[in-house]
Design a protein that fits this description.
By secondary structure, this protein is α+β, with helices and mostly antiparallel strands. Helices cover 18% and strands 42% of the residues. The chain has a single domain (2-73), classed as SH3 type barrels. Strand 4 (50-54) and strand 5 form a beta hairpin.
Amino acid sequence: MKKLSDIGVGKSVVIKEFVNNEIFIKLMEMGCIPGEIIKVDQIAPLGDPISISVVGYNLSLRLNEAEYILVEEI
């Protein structure tokens, strides 16, 4: 498994688990749940934030939030 923060632009991944329970609740409310497929759409020029597609919409995450999301490439 890798951290979402380590995934490059254009890659699709499956959310496996969250390392931090506080971020889990926030992301779950936005549709990021284990088993969901997400795609990294963009990474800002300085690397923060990143833009992902999840459940049909775009979501921006700070890099420190993406570090708590463990994913597996598909």
